[in-house]
Amino acid sequence: MAALDDPGRTRVMWTHFEPVHAVTYFHPRARAAYEAVGLRGYWRGYFAGRAAPLGATDAPPVIAAFFSFAPRMVARALPSVWRLATPQEALRARLTGAVQALAEFTYELPEAHLVEAADLLEEAAGRVEIAGRVLGAVNAALPRGEYPLARLWQAATTLREHRGDGHVAALVGTGLDPVEVLAWRCRVNQSREFHQAARGWTDEEWVAAEERLVDRGWLTADRGPTAHGIDTFRAVEEATDRAAAGPWRALGAERTDRLRELLDPIARRCRTIIPRQSPIGLPATQPS
């Protein structure tokens, strides 16, 4: 691990903190915590929980920040979810559900292991650059958790949203719109059946996006990815890693590698509940 360059180390660390964050989407205890405050149905919990750090926002800021959703899908949830639960209630529910989920995955680990992991991940999260990173900034500003698992999850979430903000900026730079990005990825290594439904795009919108991708040189006439598309998207991933590297440079190679060791058994357990076709895009196997 110590021989990796900054982008390589940054990407490996993403594969270790992203699964910790993702329990809030996929663990039954997370779903139950949202339902307990009146957010019944997966998408009510998703949009309320993820948008809650922004306050009782309407749909447009979330459409912009979340990037890949059809606007009408976001508008169905926001602002109506705030009549069911306040942002403060949604924040408590998402943290409660995440901590309960992580407790199931970490009960065999010593308390000292969890404390050290939380301390180091929290320190990394405290080094995020918030300029231009709205979701990263609002998560970084939330109160510090009282217990190690709460601190661990919130730090992972801050780092995850910070990285996501940088990824969206890199995608915007390609000139592609959200449905075009999804349609292109589904011609490379993702499932249209899953992603189109999960992000709310119609068949007509999807087909039109593929036609635009052909016209712009991202797809061939028979809908295969072009070299231009592959090279440009590789540049997006590299830009995402560069934009997310600051916390790990600040933490230093030795302490970053120690954190990776501490997170490894936690992340491996968390990955067991993430669906293979999830939009998160984690590699099939976890780098060590």
From TrEMBL:
Q: Which organism is it from?
A: Micromonospora coerulea
According to UniProt, the name of this protein is SalK
User: What InterPro entries does its record include?
Assistant: HTH_67
Quote the NCBIfam families the UniProt record gives.
SCO6745_fam_HTH
